[in-house]
Design a protein that fits this description.
Length: 466
């Protein structure tokens, strides 16, 4: 790595009569973490220089020198030849200092009409926009995996739960489409968040705008921003767009954590509903029989750090008067880690979900336990003219008998069932089977296999539209 910057004097040091304390210099610097925004910083600077030339503040030659110099800086960074300096504090000053080294005094003209305040706000928005545009395809890939698994298991029967107790039989495909719907809402939240992220603060300068005859529409068009911030104080100071993104991330991770919890349970010896591929699991250091579901466990654990980042950003902003404050330097590490955590978790799930193997015999047997068709018997009696509250009591007595004798409702004889209500006839067994139970819920949003397949068709059309 080159040392081309380490001995350079700090660009913003002229006002001070003594050097910054070495500890304070290190304590206040952000270069260790904000250097990941180098592409966005250079992208914004090229657009700014282009605008300055179009309005006559820079000559065409000066603009070309700046653009060529910035391209060289980017090449040095990407080739590992750039010498990052803590004396220059942040990504902006490091790049500008190196640019000035390369092209001379013209490099110092780049900052005309802007401040680090609007520069960093622009960089963060560009960075977030780029990251959102990489996260969206991963969410779609996860949705595609869920749809694929749901279609494959549209007829597979499993117990549905409330309070983690057997409630009613459902199809595994229906269960997977529930997760699809949650991720779909998360995606809509992210798409909506992107609209507010894609607002350009550049031109707000330090806080009040600038006296130079800039044209912000030129810069916005070059940087592909949808809109321009309409108040300079707001443009440089608020980070609500980062908070909104982190709120999206916290909600997404909550969903992935709930899903993880099910995968951990279902892959256990106690449930044996699914088998996770070996590549998503690890073994034990002392117990050779173990196959640990590390990927869903880790995603479940990582959810907490995203929750923490959301609270961190909310707390960061809650006491700041207008406009920019140094506090805002603390927005980047929580945001960056949130981005990394979401991307990693989505990639893991998008790879893992299509490879899940459902143990259909085990889920079917589990659905037979716990009197999962009790509600079907109650509905059957209502259809025979019995009031629901009375039918509820009848079925309760039948279940109590089943608990005592170790029999499921479908295993009881017709004579036994008629002992609880004379309205029961031999057609009752059509509704007491698991297949009959799920098939009977054949309406939009129901668990019937035909409805799962219809939901899959709608989901595929939705994904195609994206």
């Amino acid at each position: 790595m080159s040392n081309n910057q380490h001995n350079q004097e700090k660009l913003s040091s002229a006002r001070f009569s003594e050097a910054t304390d070495a500890f304070v210099e290190a304590f206040t610097a952000s270069i260790e973490f904000d250097q990941r925004m180098y592409k966005q910083d250079i992208q914004g600077s090229i657009a700014h220089a282009t605008m300055l030339s179009k309005v006559g503040i820079l000559t065409e030659e000066e603009k070309n020198n700046i653009v060529n110099g910035l391209n060289q800086v980017q090449s040095e960074i990407e080739n590992g030849e750039f010498g990052w300096s803590i004396k220059q504090e942040d990504i902006h000053m490091n790049i500008e200092a190196r640019l000035t080294q390369l092209i001379g005094i013209t490099g110092k003209k780049l900052h005309t009409g802007r401040s680090r305040n609007d520069q960093v706000a622009t960089d963060i928005r560009l960075y977030m926009r780029d990251e959102i545009d990489t996260i969206i395809p991963e969410m779609i890939r996860l949705q595609q995996g869920l749809v694929e698994l749901a279609e494959r298991e549209a007829d597979s029967i499993m117990p549905g739960f409330t309070h983690l107790q057997t409630a009613q039989p459902v199809t595994f495909g229906h269960h997977m489409m529930a997760w699809f719907e949650m991720i779909k809402r998360d995606l809509e939240r992210l798409q909506d968040c992107r609209k507010r992220v894609n607002t350009m603060p550049l031109g707000s300068a330090a806080l009040a705008g600038t006296t130079y005859p800039i044209d912000r529409t030129i810069t916005a068009e070059l940087l592909q921003f949808d809109r321009i911030s309409e108040n300079s104080l707001d443009g440089v100071s608020d980070r609500d767009f980062a908070i909104e993104f982190t709120h999206f991330a916290a909600t997404l991770m909550m969903h992935l954590s709930r899903f993880s919890e099910e995968l951990v349970l279902w892959s256990s010896a106690q449930f044996q509903f699914i088998d996770l591929p070996d590549r998503f699991c690890t073994g034990s250091s002392i117990m050779p029989q173990k196959k640990n579901p590390d990927v869903p466990e880790l995603v479940r654990g990582k959810t907490g750090r995203v929750y923490g980042h959301l609270m961190s950003l909310l707390t960061l902003m809650k006491s700041q008067p207008l406009a920019y404050n140094k506090d805002n330097q603390e927005d980047k590490e929580p945001l960056f880690d949130t981005v990394d955590t979401v991307k990693g978790s989505l990639r893991a799930f998008a790879d893992m979900v299509p490879a899940i193997i459902v143990k259909r015999e085990m889920t079917y047997e589990a659905a037979k336990r716990g009197f999962s068709t009790a509600t079907d018997l109650a509905d059957y009696l209502v259809g025979k003219g019995l009031a629901f509250r009375d039918s509820h009591e009848v079925v309760g007595l039948a279940v109590a008998h089943g608990v005592k004798t170790g029999q499921d409702l479908s295993e009881m004889s017709l004579e036994t069932l008629q002992g609880f209500s004379d309205k029961i006839t031999d057609d009752v067994f059509e509704v007491l089977t698991l297949e009959g139970s799920v098939a009977a819920r054949n309406h939009l949003g129901g668990t019937a296999p035909d409805q799962v397949r219809a939901a899959v068709i709608r989901a595929k059309a939705y994904l195609q539209s994206l």
